Structures are given as structure tokens and as C-alpha cells.
Amino acid sequence: MPMFPGARRPRRIRAWLAGTALTASLMAASSAGAQTPAPSLSLSEALSRAAAYDPSRAALAARVLAGEAAIRQTGLKPNPSIGIELENFAGTGAYSLADRTEATVSYQQTLERGGKRDARTGLARGQLEVARWRGAVRALDVLRDVQIAYAEALAADAELVVAEARLVAAHGAQREVERRVKSARDPLFAGSRAEAVTAQAEIARDEARAAAEAARARLAAYWGAGANYSLDVKAYFEVSPPVAPATAEVADLQLLAAERDVAVAAIRVEQAKAVTDPTVRAGVRYLGQGDDVAFVVGGSIPLRRYDTNRAGVERAQAERTAAEVEIEAARLARERDIAQLTRRMTASARESERIRTEVIPAAIRAVEQVRAGFNRGGFQYLDVAEAERALFDARARRLVVLRQFHLDQAALDRVTGRHAALVTQTASAEPRR
To answer: Strand, helix or coil at 204?
Structure first.
């Protein structure tokens, strides 16, 4: 394995397993085939790229334009109407002649009462705010997915580091066993077993490398580019217990509040519908038996005999109550999620640190002691393999814990709206008039 020169490989493996100081150099060694190192990509850069590329921004912009157009439309008065009436146009007897025809041309206008226009405009403004906050919520969901993909890519790179180191250890053990077999200190099957272990480690390394490349490609798909970047896997191991964020009105709660405001505006609309609108009419009548004309006026107003829109108001009020309950339920659920994620991340950080400081050093000592005894002929190769397996199992367990920590971090950042500043659409901006 071309990672480390000659007999210094076991010493370098032990140094790496004792801590994470050489993680960056191991990752550089695992990609030694590349002549020009790819630029390192941080989480904030990945989130910024994804936020700028997000194709849903165009859809949100179109919905905002639609909402602004709806506001302008709802602020208009009802169109007037022009009517033409012909009386005595045809008939029998004295009314059979067209010269008795009377024509009336009238102008008719409905007068809205009860604040209908303001109620409609308020409802349209509320619906625009809902569209803005819904876009912000979706953008935060995308950023959460990007953060998860970034954590998965880091985890894949870290697993590749472990697989590389395991392969180095397997090669070193195989060379030692072959030396012992040649000197007739171990049977032939010991060499075959060591060769099989090395082959398995090489397969695991190749699989880990393919998984890392696939994870980086999945992450790069969020901004529509190739995976021409590298990740600082050292940051994957540097975790600490999270600090519970202060309670804030995040986009999810703002969306529910906007939906509640829409329900309140809908109540005003339904209440305004209960107020009848009179219609006034004015016109000119031409009297067919001469050149005389007369002005006519009139009007009408609906009677509130059957439909008073009471049920419509009750429905809107029930929807407002439901929206208020949903806000409180969402706030409580958010607090529960924050508490649960914080506790779980604290436990993961604590377990990771204990594995690093307690389990791994003890496993390293066991490997060194077994190897020393093996070199003196006091142990068999199986003892060495078992000690090394325990060591790498500890490292693998730490990777599992760290992966869960970073996934929980992504969930916590989503719940608390940590990356809301990257959402380019300002949800609370006033609509254009």
C-alpha cells in the first residue's frame, strides 16, 4: 500500500488512532493520485451555493407577482353597467305601431358597503404573506437537506480514512505473517488467512472510496455542478455539546401566523358579505309619441330574508380558532424537538469523546502488546487480528456516533432556523403597490 513508506507504517497508524491530528494528512494521502488538490468546501459555502441555485426561487417569485396582482385586483370597484329598455315596441291595437315605442338608456352602479373592498384587499395581502413564508420554509427545508448531504459526505470521507488505515494495518500484518511462515514459525494457512484479511480490507477500502465519491456527487447536485471539491474531514471529529438556542419566531411559526392572519381576514370578508349592497340606477327615457324626454332614477337592495351569511362567518371563525391552536401546538412541538435534539447531541458528543480518550487508547495499547508478543512468538496471528479488529471497531463506533451527531445538528439547525439568513426571499417585505 503506497500510503506510508516502509517499516514506519505501523507507527503512523498508531499515531493516527491515538487522535485526529493526522486526519488531514491521511485524507491527502488517500487522494494522492490527484496532481492538483481540489479546493476545500465548507458547510457555509455549500449552503450558499445551494441557496443561490435553488430553482424554486423562480416559482416563489412568480407567486409573489401573482399575489401582488391579486391585491391590485381586489382593490377595484365593481364595474358599472349600461342598460337599454324598449317599451311598447310592438303589440296589438294602438300599440301595434312603432311610433309608440319608449326607449330608456340607464347607467347602473352597485355601491359596496360594509368594507368589502378593504376586507378583500386585506385577505389578498395575507395570502401574499403566506406565499412568502411558505417559500421561506421550503428554502429552509432545502438547506437542511444540503446540510444532511454535507454530513453524509463527511461521514463517507471519514469512513474512507478508517478503511485506508485498516488496509495499511492488514498489509503490515500480512508481511509479518509471511516472514514467520518462511521461517517455519507459523503454518501455511496463517499466511493464507492474512492474505484473505488483506483482500477484504482492500475491498472495504474500494467500497468506501466509491461511497465517498457518490456522497460528494450527491452534495454537488444541489448546485448543479461536479464534485470538484474536497472536504475537511478533520472538522467531522471536532464536536462539542450544543447550546440551546433562544426561542425565536422561525419561518415555520411565521407561516402559521400568516395563515392565522388570513383566517382573520376571511372573517372580515364573510362579515362584509352579510351587508347588502344597494344598486342605484339613473337614465334618460325617450317618449315615442313626441320629442319629449324624461329622466328616470331607481335602485334596488337585496332583502336579508334567507341568506345572511351567518354560516360563512362561523366557518371563518372556526378556521381562525384552528389556526391559533396550530400555532401553539407547533410552538410546543418545536420546544420538544429542540430539547430532544440537544440532549441527544450532548450524549453523542460525550460518547465520542469517551471513545477517543478511553476506548481507543486502551485498544491501541492492546494492539501494541499483542504485536510485541506476536513478534516474540508468544501469540498467534488470530490474537493480533482480534486486537486490531477491536481497535477499528472502536473507531467505527465513533464514526457512527459522530454521524448521528451531525445529522441531529442539521435537524436542530432546521428547527431553530439557523440558516434563515441564506434565504434570499425576504418573507416580511411589503408587497409592491
So the answer is: helix
